[in-house]
Write a structure and sequence with these properties.
Layout lengths: L3 E4 L2 E7 L5 E9 L4 H11 L7 E12 L1 H16 L3 E5 L3 H9 L19 H35 L6 H13 L2 H23 L7 H40 L2 H7 L4 H38 L5 H11 L2 H27 L5 H31 L3
Parallel strand pairs: 3-4, 4-5
Antiparallel strand pairs: 1-2, 2-3
Helix pairs in contact: 1-2, 4-9, 5-9, 6-7, 6-9, 7-9, 7-10, 7-11, 7-12, 9-10, 9-11, 11-12
Length: about 375
């Protein structure tokens, strides 16, 4: 038995085979103008029970686009619903390309969704351990490379790139001075105001100067300065080197015979170690000025009395201790920022992750190192 119908420029007919299978012959254009009527017409003549196998002959199809491919998709769904098989024959290369884009299975078998098996906890634990070991290996290699580069610069001072070092000093120190000064001034003002509430009860207003100066020079000055530098410069170091890493600029430096660590990392570390202690000194001065404002306008202290008490409280050791902590913090900030930059793998998202990781890791190590310094100072001598 055969049926046929004219649908503008698309025609089709069904012929029976000897084994009960049927063949659908389609000819003409299968496009947006004929797709809807073709689907409805084919469904109307393919009434249950459907044949065990249906072959679609596309030999005389003159044109087929994505709308025409939808006819085959709907036909496939109809055959799958009746657990029948579908075959396509005489499809030219263009038709095969369109069907491959639609992930059309010519066999008519239902597409199987394969779920990626979720690894169990032991596999995840093993993957995490291997990842951490690989990170530790990279960290130790980076530390060794930095140490060798610093030794080379000490033995050969002319190998230090002075222009980049001065530029990094400007970015780390001069550009950060306004925000460091403002935050330190407000911090000193807050400390003086809060401590004066308690000290006024005992007539010990003058000791506000001692509290502010000692707390800032020994602890808060280096820590606050380091945190600000980590947020500004540490993240900038990671983003700069990470961008160079994903754009293959670091590989280009290595190909040209430059040591990437000596070329990129050493100037940033040297600039940070020199600049951050000086920036810490300015932080201490601005904080003392903030305390002075509270002492003069709220506690009826004179400027001479406040400054004299400050100088009486502070010692040269306190200033040196703050400088030492600031230098160590600077080394950690620059080192972590450059390390995260070299660890970037992937695209722009990886640069953002490295930047965030650099800031978080730097702040954590700053607090941890400050705790170590506090223990050392407690048992000094």
């Amino acid at each position: 038995m055969s049926n046929s119908q004219d649908l503008q420029s698309c025609r089709y007919e069904i012929s029976n085979g000897d084994d009960g299978a049927k063949t659908l012959h389609i000819q003409g254009r299968m496009d947006a103008a004929t797709a809807a009527e073709t689907i409805a017409g084919i469904k109307s003549i393919l009434q249950p029970p459907l044949p065990t196998a249906l072959t679609v002959d596309l030999e005389k199809v003159t044109y087929l686009d994505d709308f025409g491919a939808l006819v085959l998709v709907e036909l496939k769904k109809l055959m799958i619903a009746q657990k029948s098989r579908l075959h396509i024959k005489n499809a030219d290369q263009r038709v095969k390309e369109i069907l491959s884009i639609l992930k059309y299975d010519e066999s008519g078998a239902p597409a199987t969704i394969v779920r990626k098996p979720t690894p169990n906890r032991f596999i995840r634990l093993g993957e995490g351990v291997f990842a951490q070991v690989a990170d530790l290996n990279f960290i130790f290699s980076f530390i060794g490379s930095v140490c060798l580069s610093l030794i080379h610069v000490i033995l050969h001072p002319r190998s230090l790139r002075l222009d980049d070092t001065f530029l990094s000093m400007k970015k780390v120190g001069v550009d950060a001075l306004p925000i460091v000064g403002l935050i330190s001034f407000l911090l000193g003002l807050i400390m003086a105001f809060m401590s004066s509430v308690q000290l006024q009860q005992f007539g010990a207003n003058i000791y506000v100067a001692s509290l502010v100066s000692l707390a800032m020079v020994r602890e808060l000055g280096p820590i606050m300065t380091a945190i600000i530098v980590a947020g500004r410069s540490g993240s900038a170091f990671a983003a700069e080197i990470g961008t160079m890493k994903i754009s293959d600029e670091i590989d280009a430096l290595f190909t040209m015979g430059f040591d990437p660590t000596r070329f990129l990392v050493v100037p940033k570390i040297v600039a940070s170690v020199i600049t951050v202690p000086i920036l810490t000194l300015f932080s201490d001065l601005f904080a003392i000025m903030g305390g002075l404002v509270v002492g003069v306008f709220m506690l009826d202290l004179t400027t001479n009395a406040y400054m004299a008490q400050t100088l009486k409280t502070l010692t040269l050791f306190d200033v040196f201790w703050g400088f030492l902590k600031a230098a160590v913090f600077a080394l950690l900030i620059a080192g972590i920022g450059c390390l995260r930059g070299f660890q970037v793998r992937g695209g722009a998202a990886a640069v953002g992750q490295a930047t965030t990781s650099a800031v978080v890791s730097s702040i954590f190590l700053i607090i941890l190192t400050d705790a170590v310094f506090a223990v050392i100072l407690r048992y000094w001598g």
